[in-house]
Design a protein that fits this description.
Blueprint: H1 5-8, E1 12-17, H2 18-35, E2 41-45, H3 47-51, H4 55-64, E3 69-72, H5 75-83, E4 89-92, H6 101-106, E5 109-113, H7 116-124, E6 130-136, E7 144-145, H8 149-162, E8 164-169, H9 180-199, E9 207-211, H10 213-218, H11 224-229, E10 232-235, E11 258-270, E12 275-276, E13 282-283, E14 288-293, E15 310-313, E16 316-319, E17 329-332, E18 344-351, E19 354-356, H12 358-364, H13 369-374, E20 381-385
Bound molecules: pyridoxal-5'-phosphate.
Length: 386
Protein backbone atom coordinates (compact mmCIF):
# COMPACT_ATOMS: atom_id res chain seq x y z
CA UNK A 1 0.00 0.00 0.00
CA UNK A 2 1.29 3.41 -0.93
CA UNK A 3 1.16 5.93 1.84
CA UNK A 4 1.27 9.55 0.84
CA UNK A 5 1.88 11.53 3.97
CA UNK A 6 0.34 14.69 2.58
CA UNK A 7 -3.05 13.03 2.51
CA UNK A 8 -2.93 12.28 6.18
CA UNK A 9 -0.98 15.02 7.81
CA UNK A 10 -3.11 17.68 9.33
CA UNK A 11 -0.49 19.93 10.81
CA UNK A 12 -1.91 23.26 9.74
CA UNK A 13 -5.01 23.46 7.57
CA UNK A 14 -7.90 25.68 6.57
CA UNK A 15 -11.51 24.66 6.22
CA UNK A 16 -13.45 26.65 3.64
CA UNK A 17 -17.20 26.58 4.13
CA UNK A 18 -18.54 26.47 0.58
CA UNK A 19 -22.10 26.77 1.79
CA UNK A 20 -21.23 30.05 3.47
CA UNK A 21 -19.49 31.18 0.28
CA UNK A 22 -22.69 30.53 -1.68
CA UNK A 23 -24.67 32.34 1.00
CA UNK A 24 -22.41 35.38 0.91
CA UNK A 25 -22.72 35.55 -2.86
CA UNK A 26 -26.51 35.26 -2.85
CA UNK A 27 -27.01 37.72 0.01
CA UNK A 28 -24.85 40.33 -1.72
CA UNK A 29 -26.52 39.73 -5.07
CA UNK A 30 -30.00 39.94 -3.55
CA UNK A 31 -29.17 43.32 -1.97
CA UNK A 32 -27.96 44.69 -5.29
CA UNK A 33 -30.98 43.35 -7.13
CA UNK A 34 -33.40 44.70 -4.53
CA UNK A 35 -31.85 48.14 -4.31
CA UNK A 36 -30.60 48.71 -7.80
CA UNK A 37 -31.39 46.46 -10.65
CA UNK A 38 -31.72 42.87 -11.74
CA UNK A 39 -29.34 43.19 -14.65
CA UNK A 40 -26.19 43.87 -12.67
CA UNK A 41 -23.64 41.09 -12.97
CA UNK A 42 -21.25 39.95 -10.31
CA UNK A 43 -17.65 39.38 -11.35
CA UNK A 44 -16.14 37.08 -8.71
CA UNK A 45 -12.66 38.28 -7.81
CA UNK A 46 -10.65 35.09 -7.20
CA UNK A 47 -7.14 36.50 -7.44
CA UNK A 48 -4.42 35.41 -5.00
CA UNK A 49 -5.85 31.88 -4.88
CA UNK A 50 -9.29 33.28 -4.05
CA UNK A 51 -7.88 35.32 -1.15
CA UNK A 52 -6.23 32.18 0.15
CA UNK A 53 -9.37 30.01 -0.05
CA UNK A 54 -8.35 28.07 -3.18
CA UNK A 55 -9.23 29.61 -6.56
CA UNK A 56 -10.28 26.52 -8.51
CA UNK A 57 -12.79 25.19 -6.00
CA UNK A 58 -14.12 28.65 -5.16
CA UNK A 59 -14.54 29.54 -8.85
CA UNK A 60 -16.18 26.20 -9.66
CA UNK A 61 -18.55 26.56 -6.74
CA UNK A 62 -19.57 30.04 -7.87
CA UNK A 63 -19.84 28.95 -11.49
CA UNK A 64 -22.46 26.43 -10.37
CA UNK A 65 -24.33 29.31 -8.71
CA UNK A 66 -24.47 31.13 -12.03
CA UNK A 67 -21.38 33.36 -11.95
CA UNK A 68 -20.06 33.94 -15.46
CA UNK A 69 -17.34 36.51 -14.83
CA UNK A 70 -14.12 35.91 -12.92
CA UNK A 71 -11.23 38.25 -12.16
CA UNK A 72 -7.64 37.28 -11.37
CA UNK A 73 -4.37 39.13 -10.98
CA UNK A 74 -2.17 37.44 -13.58
CA UNK A 75 -1.94 35.03 -16.47
CA UNK A 76 -0.91 32.03 -14.34
CA UNK A 77 -4.04 32.35 -12.25
CA UNK A 78 -6.11 32.85 -15.41
CA UNK A 79 -4.74 29.78 -17.19
CA UNK A 80 -5.13 27.65 -14.05
CA UNK A 81 -8.83 28.54 -13.90
CA UNK A 82 -9.38 27.96 -17.61
CA UNK A 83 -7.67 24.57 -17.50
CA UNK A 84 -9.73 23.57 -14.49
CA UNK A 85 -12.97 24.01 -16.39
CA UNK A 86 -14.05 27.59 -15.81
CA UNK A 87 -15.97 28.49 -18.95
CA UNK A 88 -17.00 32.11 -18.31
CA UNK A 89 -14.99 35.27 -18.92
CA UNK A 90 -11.66 35.32 -17.10
CA UNK A 91 -10.33 38.84 -16.70
CA UNK A 92 -6.76 39.73 -15.69
CA UNK A 93 -6.88 42.88 -13.57
CA UNK A 94 -3.21 43.82 -14.03
CA UNK A 95 -0.24 43.83 -16.39
CA UNK A 96 0.74 40.94 -18.64
CA UNK A 97 3.74 41.05 -20.97
CA UNK A 98 2.71 41.05 -24.64
CA UNK A 99 4.86 37.99 -25.26
CA UNK A 100 1.98 36.00 -23.76
CA UNK A 101 -0.51 37.36 -26.27
CA UNK A 102 -0.93 33.96 -27.95
CA UNK A 103 -1.65 32.24 -24.64
CA UNK A 104 -4.25 34.87 -23.77
CA UNK A 105 -5.94 34.39 -27.13
CA UNK A 106 -5.76 30.59 -27.04
CA UNK A 107 -7.26 30.43 -23.54
CA UNK A 108 -9.81 33.15 -24.30
CA UNK A 109 -8.66 35.39 -21.47
CA UNK A 110 -9.49 39.09 -21.22
CA UNK A 111 -6.47 41.33 -20.56
CA UNK A 112 -6.29 44.74 -18.90
CA UNK A 113 -4.40 47.42 -20.80
CA UNK A 114 -2.63 49.38 -18.09
CA UNK A 115 -1.46 52.27 -20.27
CA UNK A 116 -1.33 53.49 -23.86
CA UNK A 117 2.18 52.05 -24.08
CA UNK A 118 0.80 48.64 -23.09
CA UNK A 119 -1.99 48.93 -25.68
CA UNK A 120 0.49 49.90 -28.38
CA UNK A 121 2.68 46.93 -27.52
CA UNK A 122 -0.26 44.55 -28.09
CA UNK A 123 -1.03 46.34 -31.36
CA UNK A 124 2.61 46.08 -32.46
CA UNK A 125 2.57 42.29 -32.12
CA UNK A 126 -0.71 42.15 -34.06
CA UNK A 127 -2.59 40.74 -31.10
CA UNK A 128 -6.31 40.20 -31.25
CA UNK A 129 -6.59 39.46 -27.54
CA UNK A 130 -9.82 40.61 -25.89
CA UNK A 131 -8.92 43.58 -23.73
CA UNK A 132 -10.19 46.34 -21.49
CA UNK A 133 -8.60 49.71 -20.85
CA UNK A 134 -8.00 50.71 -17.22
CA UNK A 135 -8.93 54.32 -16.53
CA UNK A 136 -7.18 56.07 -13.66
CA UNK A 137 -9.62 58.30 -11.80
CA UNK A 138 -7.47 58.89 -8.72
CA UNK A 139 -5.99 55.61 -7.54
CA UNK A 140 -2.75 56.38 -9.41
CA UNK A 141 -1.96 52.70 -9.84
CA UNK A 142 -2.73 51.72 -13.43
CA UNK A 143 -4.75 53.20 -16.26
CA UNK A 144 -4.94 56.12 -18.64
CA UNK A 145 -5.41 59.47 -16.95
CA UNK A 146 -9.08 60.43 -16.72
CA UNK A 147 -8.12 64.02 -15.90
CA UNK A 148 -7.13 64.41 -19.53
CA UNK A 149 -10.54 63.68 -21.00
CA UNK A 150 -9.64 64.34 -24.62
CA UNK A 151 -6.54 62.20 -24.46
CA UNK A 152 -8.54 59.41 -22.80
CA UNK A 153 -11.12 59.68 -25.56
CA UNK A 154 -8.42 59.52 -28.23
CA UNK A 155 -6.81 56.44 -26.70
CA UNK A 156 -10.11 54.58 -26.31
CA UNK A 157 -11.19 55.41 -29.88
CA UNK A 158 -7.79 54.49 -31.32
CA UNK A 159 -7.60 51.10 -29.65
CA UNK A 160 -11.26 50.31 -30.15
CA UNK A 161 -10.27 50.24 -33.83
CA UNK A 162 -6.84 48.68 -33.54
CA UNK A 163 -7.49 46.03 -30.89
CA UNK A 164 -10.27 43.71 -29.79
CA UNK A 165 -11.38 46.18 -27.11
CA UNK A 166 -14.42 45.05 -25.14
CA UNK A 167 -14.48 47.30 -22.09
CA UNK A 168 -13.18 50.04 -19.83
CA UNK A 169 -13.04 50.16 -16.07
CA UNK A 170 -11.79 52.17 -13.13
CA UNK A 171 -11.00 51.39 -9.51
CA UNK A 172 -11.83 53.26 -6.31
CA UNK A 173 -9.31 54.21 -3.61
CA UNK A 174 -11.57 54.79 -0.59
CA UNK A 175 -14.96 53.23 -1.38
CA UNK A 176 -14.76 51.44 1.98
CA UNK A 177 -14.44 54.64 4.01
CA UNK A 178 -17.70 56.35 4.85
CA UNK A 179 -16.26 59.68 6.03
CA UNK A 180 -17.43 62.82 4.21
CA UNK A 181 -14.02 63.40 2.66
CA UNK A 182 -13.76 59.85 1.29
CA UNK A 183 -17.32 59.81 -0.02
CA UNK A 184 -16.55 63.06 -1.83
CA UNK A 185 -13.39 61.56 -3.28
CA UNK A 186 -15.26 58.49 -4.54
CA UNK A 187 -17.96 60.69 -6.04
CA UNK A 188 -15.17 62.59 -7.78
CA UNK A 189 -13.81 59.33 -9.19
CA UNK A 190 -17.28 58.36 -10.41
CA UNK A 191 -17.64 61.78 -12.00
CA UNK A 192 -14.29 61.51 -13.82
CA UNK A 193 -15.16 58.03 -15.06
CA UNK A 194 -18.48 59.28 -16.31
CA UNK A 195 -16.93 62.23 -18.12
CA UNK A 196 -14.74 59.85 -20.09
CA UNK A 197 -17.65 57.50 -20.78
CA UNK A 198 -19.72 60.43 -22.09
CA UNK A 199 -17.08 61.04 -24.74
CA UNK A 200 -17.14 57.49 -26.07
CA UNK A 201 -20.86 56.70 -25.91
CA UNK A 202 -20.88 55.56 -29.53
CA UNK A 203 -17.99 53.12 -29.02
CA UNK A 204 -19.28 49.64 -28.47
CA UNK A 205 -18.08 48.47 -25.05
CA UNK A 206 -19.74 45.45 -23.47
CA UNK A 207 -17.96 45.83 -20.17
CA UNK A 208 -18.04 49.05 -18.20
CA UNK A 209 -17.34 48.71 -14.50
CA UNK A 210 -16.01 50.47 -11.43
CA UNK A 211 -17.40 48.95 -8.23
CA UNK A 212 -15.49 46.68 -5.86
CA UNK A 213 -17.15 45.01 -2.81
CA UNK A 214 -17.31 48.28 -0.88
CA UNK A 215 -18.32 50.36 -3.89
CA UNK A 216 -21.25 48.03 -4.49
CA UNK A 217 -22.36 48.26 -0.88
CA UNK A 218 -21.86 51.95 -0.20
CA UNK A 219 -21.96 53.80 -3.52
CA UNK A 220 -23.99 51.85 -6.01
CA UNK A 221 -27.41 53.23 -6.77
CA UNK A 222 -26.58 56.79 -5.81
CA UNK A 223 -25.80 57.65 -9.36
CA UNK A 224 -28.58 56.93 -11.88
CA UNK A 225 -26.62 57.62 -15.01
CA UNK A 226 -23.72 55.42 -14.02
CA UNK A 227 -26.11 52.64 -13.02
CA UNK A 228 -27.38 52.47 -16.55
CA UNK A 229 -23.82 52.10 -17.84
CA UNK A 230 -21.89 50.17 -15.23
CA UNK A 231 -23.43 46.74 -14.99
CA UNK A 232 -20.71 44.77 -13.24
CA UNK A 233 -19.53 44.62 -9.65
CA UNK A 234 -16.09 43.17 -9.03
CA UNK A 235 -16.82 41.34 -5.81
CA UNK A 236 -13.85 40.20 -3.76
CA UNK A 237 -13.46 40.44 0.00
CA UNK A 238 -17.17 40.30 0.92
CA UNK A 239 -17.52 36.98 -0.92
CA UNK A 240 -15.11 35.62 1.66
CA UNK A 241 -17.06 37.22 4.48
CA UNK A 242 -14.56 39.87 5.53
CA UNK A 243 -15.00 43.62 5.76
CA UNK A 244 -13.34 45.90 3.23
CA UNK A 245 -12.52 48.13 6.19
CA UNK A 246 -12.76 47.23 9.87
CA UNK A 247 -15.17 50.12 10.44
CA UNK A 248 -17.71 48.73 7.94
CA UNK A 249 -20.68 46.60 8.93
CA UNK A 250 -21.54 43.79 6.58
CA UNK A 251 -25.09 42.82 5.61
CA UNK A 252 -26.76 40.28 7.94
CA UNK A 253 -25.84 36.69 7.17
CA UNK A 254 -22.51 37.42 5.49
CA UNK A 255 -19.91 35.55 7.52
CA UNK A 256 -16.27 34.49 7.09
CA UNK A 257 -15.88 31.34 4.97
CA UNK A 258 -12.44 30.41 6.21
CA UNK A 259 -11.39 28.66 9.43
CA UNK A 260 -7.70 28.02 10.11
CA UNK A 261 -6.77 25.17 12.42
CA UNK A 262 -3.68 23.46 13.77
CA UNK A 263 -2.73 20.81 16.32
CA UNK A 264 -1.20 20.60 19.80
CA UNK A 265 2.03 18.59 19.56
CA UNK A 266 3.05 18.60 23.22
CA UNK A 267 2.20 20.04 26.61
CA UNK A 268 4.73 20.80 29.35
CA UNK A 269 5.02 22.76 32.58
CA UNK A 270 7.35 25.66 33.09
CA UNK A 271 8.68 26.77 36.40
CA UNK A 272 9.00 30.39 37.42
CA UNK A 273 11.64 32.42 35.53
CA UNK A 274 12.02 30.01 32.62
CA UNK A 275 12.10 31.53 29.15
CA UNK A 276 10.48 30.36 25.93
CA UNK A 277 11.78 30.23 22.38
CA UNK A 278 14.24 32.14 20.23
CA UNK A 279 15.42 35.39 21.74
CA UNK A 280 13.96 34.42 25.13
CA UNK A 281 11.30 37.11 24.80
CA UNK A 282 8.95 35.51 27.32
CA UNK A 283 9.76 34.67 30.93
CA UNK A 284 7.31 32.82 33.19
CA UNK A 285 6.15 34.76 36.24
CA UNK A 286 4.96 31.55 37.98
CA UNK A 287 4.46 27.88 37.13
CA UNK A 288 2.80 27.73 33.73
CA UNK A 289 1.44 25.05 31.42
CA UNK A 290 2.63 25.56 27.87
CA UNK A 291 1.43 23.87 24.70
CA UNK A 292 3.43 23.75 21.49
CA UNK A 293 1.28 23.97 18.36
CA UNK A 294 2.16 23.09 14.79
CA UNK A 295 1.88 26.35 12.88
CA UNK A 296 4.52 29.03 12.46
CA UNK A 297 5.45 31.99 10.33
CA UNK A 298 6.30 29.81 7.32
CA UNK A 299 2.62 28.91 7.29
CA UNK A 300 1.82 32.59 6.98
CA UNK A 301 1.10 33.18 10.65
CA UNK A 302 2.57 36.65 11.11
CA UNK A 303 5.52 36.62 13.50
CA UNK A 304 4.48 40.05 14.78
CA UNK A 305 1.80 38.21 16.79
CA UNK A 306 4.54 36.89 19.11
CA UNK A 307 3.60 37.70 22.73
CA UNK A 308 0.62 39.82 21.64
CA UNK A 309 -2.16 37.57 20.32
CA UNK A 310 -3.88 34.30 21.15
CA UNK A 311 -5.36 31.10 19.72
CA UNK A 312 -8.39 29.08 20.81
CA UNK A 313 -8.26 25.63 22.41
CA UNK A 314 -11.40 23.94 23.77
CA UNK A 315 -13.29 27.21 23.36
CA UNK A 316 -10.81 29.18 25.49
CA UNK A 317 -8.14 31.74 24.75
CA UNK A 318 -4.51 30.60 24.87
CA UNK A 319 -2.03 33.53 24.62
CA UNK A 320 0.97 33.16 22.31
CA UNK A 321 4.13 33.13 24.43
CA UNK A 322 7.64 33.68 23.10
CA UNK A 323 8.59 34.37 19.52
CA UNK A 324 6.68 32.48 16.86
CA UNK A 325 9.02 29.98 15.14
CA UNK A 326 9.05 28.94 11.49
CA UNK A 327 6.81 25.87 11.89
CA UNK A 328 5.69 25.96 15.51
CA UNK A 329 4.72 28.32 18.29
CA UNK A 330 4.06 28.08 22.01
CA UNK A 331 0.87 29.09 23.78
CA UNK A 332 -0.07 29.37 27.42
CA UNK A 333 -2.71 26.81 28.42
CA UNK A 334 -2.44 27.19 32.20
CA UNK A 335 -6.17 27.96 32.24
CA UNK A 336 -7.06 25.12 29.87
CA UNK A 337 -5.79 22.11 31.88
CA UNK A 338 -7.53 19.55 29.68
CA UNK A 339 -5.18 20.42 26.76
CA UNK A 340 -3.27 17.40 25.43
CA UNK A 341 -1.28 16.16 22.44
CA UNK A 342 -3.40 15.97 19.28
CA UNK A 343 -5.99 18.55 20.36
CA UNK A 344 -7.39 20.86 17.72
CA UNK A 345 -6.42 24.53 17.88
CA UNK A 346 -8.33 27.33 16.15
CA UNK A 347 -6.17 30.13 14.74
CA UNK A 348 -8.96 31.84 12.80
CA UNK A 349 -12.60 30.94 13.39
CA UNK A 350 -14.95 29.76 16.11
CA UNK A 351 -14.27 27.54 19.08
CA UNK A 352 -17.05 27.17 21.64
CA UNK A 353 -18.31 30.67 22.35
CA UNK A 354 -15.08 32.33 21.29
CA UNK A 355 -14.24 33.57 17.82
CA UNK A 356 -11.11 34.99 16.22
CA UNK A 357 -11.71 36.83 12.97
CA UNK A 358 -9.10 37.73 10.37
CA UNK A 359 -10.45 41.29 10.68
CA UNK A 360 -9.65 41.35 14.43
CA UNK A 361 -6.16 39.99 13.78
CA UNK A 362 -5.68 42.61 11.10
CA UNK A 363 -6.73 45.37 13.49
CA UNK A 364 -4.15 44.13 16.00
CA UNK A 365 -1.38 44.44 13.41
CA UNK A 366 -2.73 47.65 11.89
CA UNK A 367 -3.31 45.97 8.58
CA UNK A 368 -6.36 44.67 6.69
CA UNK A 369 -8.11 41.30 6.77
CA UNK A 370 -7.14 40.78 3.14
CA UNK A 371 -3.47 40.50 4.12
CA UNK A 372 -4.15 38.02 6.92
CA UNK A 373 -6.00 35.52 4.71
CA UNK A 374 -3.90 36.01 1.55
CA UNK A 375 -0.83 35.42 3.67
CA UNK A 376 -1.75 31.86 4.64
CA UNK A 377 0.94 29.97 2.79
CA UNK A 378 0.58 27.18 0.30
CA UNK A 379 1.76 24.39 2.53
CA UNK A 380 -1.33 24.92 4.69
CA UNK A 381 -3.80 22.35 3.37
CA UNK A 382 -7.04 23.62 1.91
CA UNK A 383 -10.02 21.51 2.90
CA UNK A 384 -13.66 22.14 2.05
CA UNK A 385 -16.96 21.78 3.83
CA UNK A 386 -20.10 21.59 1.71
C1 LIG B 1 -8.85 43.26 -5.88
C2 LIG B 1 -9.68 44.08 -6.76
C3 LIG B 1 -11.06 44.08 -6.63
C4 LIG B 1 -11.78 43.40 -5.48
O1 LIG B 1 -11.75 44.24 -4.37
P1 LIG B 1 -12.52 43.82 -3.01
O2 LIG B 1 -12.29 44.99 -2.12
O3 LIG B 1 -11.87 42.59 -2.52
O4 LIG B 1 -13.93 43.62 -3.38
C5 LIG B 1 -11.80 44.78 -7.57
N1 LIG B 1 -11.19 45.44 -8.58
C6 LIG B 1 -9.86 45.47 -8.73
C7 LIG B 1 -9.27 46.24 -9.86
C8 LIG B 1 -9.05 44.82 -7.82
O5 LIG B 1 -7.72 44.88 -7.95
Amino acid sequence: MEIRACQFEKRSWIEVDLNQLRKNYHIYKAIIEKNISKDINIMAVVKADAYGCGDVIVAKTLQKEGVKLFAVSNIDEAVTLRKSGIVGEIFILGYTDVKYSDVLVRENIVQTLVSEEHARAFYDVGSNVKCQIAIDTGMNRIGIDADDILESERIIRTYAKKLNLCGVFTHFSVADDETVESVEFTNGQIHKFQNVLDKVKDVELSYIHCYNSAGGLFHLGKNEELNSLSKIIRLGIVLYGLKPDNKNTLPDGIEPVLTWKTTVSMVKTLEINETIGYGRTYKSDCNRTIATITTGYADGYDRHFSNRWYVLIHGKKAPIVGNICMDQMMVDVTNIPETKMGDEVVLIGKSGNEVITADAMAANLQTIGYEIICGISHRVQRTYIE
